[in-house]
Amino acid sequence: MNAPVEFTTEKINNIKPFKSQLLKWIGNKQRMACEIISTFPNFNVYHEPFLGSGGVLGVLAPKKAYASDAFKPLMEIWECLHDDKNRLIEWYSARYELIEKLGKKEAYEKVLASYNKNPNGADFVYLSRACYGGVVRFRKEDGYMSTPCGVHNSISPASFSSRVNEWAERTNGTVFRHMGYEQAMLEAKAGDLIYCDPPYADSQAILYGAQKFSLPHLFEIIQDCKNRGVYVALSIDGSKYSGRKICNLPIPDDLFEQESFIDVGRSMLKRFQMDGQTLEEHVVADRLLLTY
Q: Which string of b and e fits 89-123 if b means at least 16 CB within 10 Å?
């Protein structure tokens, strides 16, 4: 067992919920980010190598951070937020304007066809907000995005612009990089903190990047980080079917010092698969594993 870890007090007490989401994304941790952050120790630099929609990053708003993802169109969005936020607003606005010209579904299908012809962040930022439930789903054989148009109305360009400005301020100290998680985690130094939110091993084989993800390999990288004095917090499968199934994962003995379960609500992926049913019997809890 490691020596007791000194947990942050002043910083964590100042963390407040931040509900404005830049991207609409299944598995987003923003709603439970304060609970996750409350487990973080004092750290030097924050790292998030499975960035996705950056829910924990946005709430934490660290002074110095590195955030990355292997999915290039996604990182084009985050890099644009940092480098030229007005251009990011223009990307979304230009595609939103198609709704008045073509109709909601037709506009979505036009942007989706453009994306599938040439995957890019400009199309993807609109698709993430307009697709069904934020379920970013790709065909395994060719990467074709197949999620249909959502039943909701996409937020207006004015609302998106406001969110861009909020997120640009909250991530001002973050360096965004298109990078695989292995390289990103190996660059962390002793005293740094890594928060990992990889694809769920039990249920996300259809989602972006999940086909190539290996949980046992991630555990190997986490062990290396722990050996080097890097703190690692991992969100991964916990329980499904309102607690009736505890996900059985190949978690190595002695890798993690603490484990807890965090209620993340009803499964949006299951709702998508079951055509919008309310799914009271499909409440999901994440397992939060800590190396400290």
A: bebbeebbebbeeeebeebbeebbebbbeebebbb
